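Hi V.,

You were right to ask for the full record rather than a summary. Here it is.
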Amino acid sequence: MDYEDGSFANGPPSAYGDYVNERYPHPIIDKFISPPLSPRMFLDVLASRRFMMKGMGGREGLVAPPPPPPPPRGGAYGPTGALAANGIQGGAGCVLMAYGLDPNKANPDRLFNLFCLYGNVIRIKFLKSKEGCAMVQMGDSISVERCINHLKNVPLFGGVLQLGYSKQTYLSEVAQPYTLPDNSLSFKDYTSSKNNRYINPSMASKNRIQGPAKILHFFNSPPDLTEEQLSSLIEEKDVTKPTQIKFFPKKGDKSSSGLLEFDDLADAVNCLVYCNHLPIKNPESKFPYVMKLCFSSSRSIFYPNGPYKEENQQQSQQIQQ
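Predicted structure:
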């Protein structure tokens, strides 16, 4: 039979018989795929269905595609040690910039007292080249969004706090931080801080995301603390004392809680920055009480039906548990 007469649909037979076709078969194309595949899409389909590689003894075989990459570490919840165990965990949108800070009053601990209300704080670093500017690494990008949405343009240290996103994905360890005007260091790591409030889902569920307000909610204070003592502790921090202090009815002798009302929003924010996590001496133990503050959803301490809202007392009980 003449090869040139077109009798062979697939061309003339190979000199090696069917060896080549058996060893290197034509790829199977799914005829049900619509619309028609472009050359690039065709190669992607082949790569996903068939993965050739050299095996033992030079043999070729079919193997499964590589597994997908693991999810990034450092989610919204989880122990802070897992969020930044080696100091470099982070991700896109996990670092924010803070501008407009008073260099004579701002330090890492005071910023931590404010930003910890909206997520786990990992590291804080002040920039020596930009006075009044700091970088804050949060546990995840959601926490950064909360901070920017609730704290942008808030009065702080006599100025206005400006926040923005940073291009960096994490803050590196600073071997030799410089000293701030109040003798504190310009860099601090809060990875293992017990004052982070989103360490696990149980703790995170007890936090109510609330923007800055003139009323602060305090809890984890000594059970026998009086209004005069609390007002004196606040004044010792050179902060304007609250105009009204109300304690919630006690259901035990472990701690006390209540509300602090201020005339001005700036006074309330400054009180939270200076007095949040304030240690108060415990006469019955060598470990002090650590009073915690957060913004309250109440608009006023006094109401027609009572001195406080019932939901504030319920919130206090949930947090203390």
